[in-house]
Design goal:
about 270 residues, 7-stranded parallel sheet, alpha/beta
Length: about 270
């Protein structure tokens, strides 16, 4: 990056940084970002991973004392704006403690068929609308051998800033698609050769470590939202119900933690 090309911002209402306005307002950002084909990456590591994944930057906004963090970043001609921490906080609505933000253009999502093609193991999420959990699930998927993620129509946006940040940019590494209709779309997953496994604490669920090889060979792990879990219709649509055995009277785990445990168990015999 050419430091001489940095543009100074002194007014938090400067229209040049409109992409970064009120980043803590989930409702506003949800209305603004996807329809305009944008998402926000926070932190040097995350924005570098977005660039490596091929996302095209629209602009960068940095703490003026941290411009050197963009050294070596291929900005693709996108403008780089620098401001004081006070201006950044007034514009974004929070203290930008990582000092670096970037606005990126979204890409067209693949179809579920494209995500399933060539995949050996996928996660299917129903109504997971907590951005922190969603980001953690994507990070676990990337780390533990899950090849793709399918989202019910009501799931949160994986490219929302908090999801991207919690995933440490791994949301860029795992292909995902929206699966519609719901839960009828699970038939498409089954037709692609996957066994749909509903993860549930139900008493009649099979301990996941006892899953026979035929059912774990190409597994589509179905996960529900924190609290309510999977809907009755999703449970009915699954091929089998599996559970993580609990001890000391604990009834369940956070969905992101449960996903990580189940991902590891399904891939425990993978070569490493």
């Amino acid at each position: 990056m050419d430091a001489g090309g940095v543009e100074e911002i002194t007014d938090p209402d400067d229209p040049r940084i409109g992409d970064y306005r009120a980043l803590t307002d989930v409702e506003l950002r949800t209305r603004w970002e996807p329809p305009h084909g944008l998402f926000i990456a926070e932190g040097e590591l995350v924005l570098r991973r977005a660039l490596r994944a091929g996302y095209r930057p629209r602009s960068f906004l940095v703490d003026r004392k941290r411009v050197d963090q963009l050294a070596g970043v291929a900005t693709g001609g996108a403008p780089v704006y620098a401001a004081s921490p006070a201006v950044l906080e007034r514009a974004t609505g929070f203290h930008v403690h990582r000092g670096v933000l970037a606005s990126f253009h979204r890409r067209e999502l693949p179809t579920p068929t494209e995500v399933l093609a060539g995949a050996r193991r996928v996660a299917v999420l129903e109504d997971v609308n907590n951005h922190t959990n969603l980001g953690a699930i994507f990070r676990g998927a990337a780390a533990l051998g899950v090849d793709g993620v399918l989202l019910s129509p009501s799931c949160a946006d994986p490219l929302y800033r908090r999801s991207v940040r919690v995933s440490m940019g791994e949301v860029f590494a795992v292909p995902y698609a929206r699966l519609e209709p719901w839960p009828g779309g699970l038939e498409l997953v089954r037709a692609a050769g996957f066994t749909v496994l509903a993860l549930t604490p139900a008493a009649d669920a099979l301990p996941i470590q006892r899953l026979p090889p035929a059912q774990r060979a190409r597994a589509a792990l179905l996960l529900g939202a924190e609290g309510p879990g999977l809907s009755r219709s999703a449970l009915t649509a699954a091929d089998a119900r599996v559970a993580i055995p609990m001890r000391r009277g604990v009834d369940s785990l956070n969905v992101a933690a449960a996903a990580a445990v189940a991902f590891w168990e399904l891939g425990r015999d993978d070569p490493v």
